[in-house]
């Protein structure tokens, strides 16, 4: 049995722990990309006669040229989130399956969103500055009690975010046209229409995918409908937000905070007004997993290949019909 590790040497040491590599080696012949490139010719050599492949950011698409080299390829384990740069019609036609580590990343996203939720509600960012300047007050503090938290997008991250909110005495409402009310109720959320989520939320957390239909869904009109002093959190995709409109609303003090882990573009332009606004909290797209947390992606891939070999269900499988509705 052979496993082709198509990750380049920039990504490989970030997502494959030495102990995980040893476990891969114990179960199969391992063909490892020893370069910092993702050249097709090199990938074709690595994948030749492989039964499984591990990919990640920057790995090449599964074209017929690559697939021809591995007629027995059964499963691709993707040590990253979106598989759209990897999958092809030909791959699906040949019956090759693919799993994504999006669930691993989404856990970090929802945990980061919860952290930003609590920190912004309690006004930690402004009160930190105030205390450093000699102040000592509880101005602007809102506890996680008796407020409404809205969620847009109820996929892996949105659902887990709702689960993390269950210990708090807050109402959770959520919008996702593809998820039914029962699934939301099961994790403590109430299904709502999009406009209600905008108008009723004290804190609004975005977890929708980047699609044509979600581009600038947070626009000037919907910002106008949000509660005065509401908080907007975006750990999804920067393209969901009209940032020019958001900057205007933040500058006018109509929102308490916008906490943005993602922007469009990334990083934000040096002259972006968001950089100058104290009520705009900017972090460098770290919500998914960062540094040591990335090693979880390699562990996930190892586990899924083991699941396949033992006949257990795969986690995070991406079927072809899912591609139009996921990130």
The coarse overall form would be: elongated
Uncertain segments are none
Please give the count of helices.
Answer: 13
Structural class: alpha/beta
Strand order of the largest sheet: 8-7-6-9-10-11-12
End-to-end gap: 32 Å
The tally of strands reads: 12
Main sheet summary: 7 strands, parallel
Mean pLDDT: 97
Question: What descriptive keywords fit this protein?
Answer:
327 residues; alpha/beta; 5-stranded parallel sheet; 13 helices
Structure description:
It contains 13 helices and twelve strands. The protein has helices at 12-15, 18-27, 40-47, 64-67, 89-93, 102-121, 124-132, 156-164, 181-185, 194-200, 220-225, 243-251, 295-310, and strands at 2-5, 29-32, 52-55, 75-78, 97-100, 145-152, 169-175, 190-191, 203-206, 230-234, 255-260, 280-282. The protein is elongated. The model has no long low-confidence stretch (mean pLDDT 97).
Summarize the structure.
With 327 residues, this protein is α/β, with parallel strands linked by helices.
Topology:
Blueprint: E1 2-5, H1 12-15, H2 18-27, E2 29-32, H3 40-47, E3 52-55, H4 64-67, E4 75-78, H5 89-93, E5 97-100, H6 102-121, H7 124-132, E6 145-152, H8 156-164, E7 169-175, H9 181-185, E8 190-191, H10 194-200, E9 203-206, H11 220-225, E10 230-234, H12 243-251, E11 255-260, E12 280-282, H13 295-310
